[in-house]
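User: For my dataset I need records formatted as: sequence, then C-alpha cells, nothing else. Please produce one.
Assistant:
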Amino acid sequence: MKQTILITGASSGIGKATAILFQSKGWNVIATMRSPENETELNTIDNVLVTRLDVLDLESIQQAVHSGIQKFGKIDALLNNAGYGAFGPVEAFSRDSIVRQFNTNVIGLLDVTRAVLPHFRTNKNGVIVNISSVGGKVTFPLGALYHGTKFAVEGISEAMNFEVEQFGGKMKIVEPGAIQTDFTGRSIDVSADESMPEYDHIFQRLQEGIPAFFEHASPARVVADVVYEAVTDGTDQLRYTAGDDARETVNNRKQLDDKTFTEAIKSQFGL
C-alpha cells in the first residue's frame, strides 16, 4: 500500500512544492487548503486529494482527516505548514490580531495534530513534521508575535517527541531560512500606527532590510526536499535546517552570546 501524507497550506509555496515532490516519489497526498475550489494544478495530478482545511475551523480539520483516510485508507505522515507572519510593534496590534496570529500558527497546528494523533496511535506509527523557521531560533526587529509562535512550535515539537515515541511515532522540526514564496505578500501581516512615532526608525530600517534578506532566498523545493528527508530517513533526528542561510544563522546563534548576537542583528538592520 502506498504511503500517504496530509499537508496543510498546500495552495502555494512550501506546501504545494512538498505535495508535488511526495506525489512524484509515489506517495498519496492529501493537499489541504482554505479554498480548494481555486486550485488548478494539484487537482489534476494522480493520487492527490485536494480538500478544504482551515486551521481555524475544527470541523474542516476533522472532515479533511476523515476524507483522506476514507480515500487512501491510512495517513502515514502529517506536515503542519499553514501559517503567516505578523510584524510590527506589539502595541500597534489589536488583541484580535494577536489572537489570530497565535491561533493560526500554534493553536491551529495543535488542532490538526490532535485530529491525526488517534489514527497514528492506532497504527503505532506516524511522522509529524512541523514547519518552524530560523525565526524559531533567532529573532528580528518587530517580530515579537511571529517569533513567539515559532518559538512555541519549537517547544511543542520537542516536548511532544517524548509522547509520540511511546507508540512508535516521530516528531520532526524543519527550520527554513529565506524562501522564495509569497511570505512577504499574502503571508505577512504588517501593523504600524502613526500615533507611535518612536517606532518609525526601526520600522523603516526593517522595511529597507527585508529585500536584502530575501535576495538569496532558496526555492520552496529546498524545503520540500528537507521535509521528504525528515519523513523518510528513519532516524530519530529532531531538527532539520533548510537553506544555507538558515544553517549559517543557527550556527552563529549557537556560538555567540546574547549581547554579541543582538548587536550583529542591529548592525544588519542599521539600528
